[in-house]
Amino acid sequence: MNEEQSARKESDGEPEPPDGEAQRLDADPQRPDGEAQRPDGDPQPPHEAPEQPDEDRESAYALLQRGQGLMRSRHHAQAAIVLERAARLEPGKGSILEPLGRAYQHSGQFERARETFEALLEVDPSAHWAHFALAAALRKLNRSANARTHLRLAIALSPASVLYRTALARLDAESPPPSAKAPPAADAARSEPPRDPEED
Questions:
Q1: Burial of 173 (0-12, 13-18, 19+ CB in 10 A)
Q2: What is d(CA 79, CA 86) in angstroms, rounded to the nearest whole number?
Q3: Fewest CB atoms less than 10 Å from the CB: which of 6, 18, 94, 130?
Q4: Residue 67's closest CA among 181, 58, 18, 6?
Q5: Can you give the pLDDT at residue 58?
Q6: Residue 177: phi, psi to the nearest 5?
């Protein structure tokens, strides 16, 4: 039976050899690597593995779960990489942006955290926690005035939060707002009591 008949027989439904034992019909048995041989004698490049079908790829939900697991284990930088993939699959999804922003924040990537929390606020401007988180990132970037604005918004949206009020008090202690700073010299001079001319 020649090779062509053998190939036809296999295609008629007879079982193929187990994996690892099958050899391509056009392979040169003299070549130890089993590479296919073109008629002109040049070896053909090995076939690339087919792309994974979509159903075998990790879903955004699976990536989210894996990223949150890494965060629970305090592997924040690795979690950020996994959650970035989830965010690419489901852009603008608040349930992914929130942990991604936290992963950036806890791994010291404050500029990326800022961008992510701003994107989260575009999804839901009334999310008081997002204002608080954005303020924390801005504070790390030495942008106290912007941080104060978002902390005040967080408090306005959730007045009962002790956490937000404590954060604002801490920020005011570290970097007092302009209204709390000492008055300019001209204002200070005006506030002094008038002096007795005889004292000159």
A1: exposed
A2: 11
A3: 18
A4: 58
A5: 86
A6: -65, 160
Considering only CA atoms, give the Rg of the chain.
33
Residue type, position 7, single letter? A
| Cβ atoms within 10 Å of 124's Cβ, excluding its own | 13
16, amino acid identity: E
Q: Residues near 121 by Cβ (< 8 Å), separated by ≥ 6?
A: 127, 130, 131, 134
Whether 29 shows a pLDDT value over 50: the answer reads no
Structure tokens at 10: 């296999």
pTM as predicted = 0.62
Count of CB atoms situated within 10 Å of the CB of 17: 9
What is the pLDDT confidence band of residue 149, given thresholds at 50, 70 and 90? very high
Q: Backbone phi, then psi, for 43, in 5-degree steps?
A: -70, 145
| Token reading at 16 | 């193929």
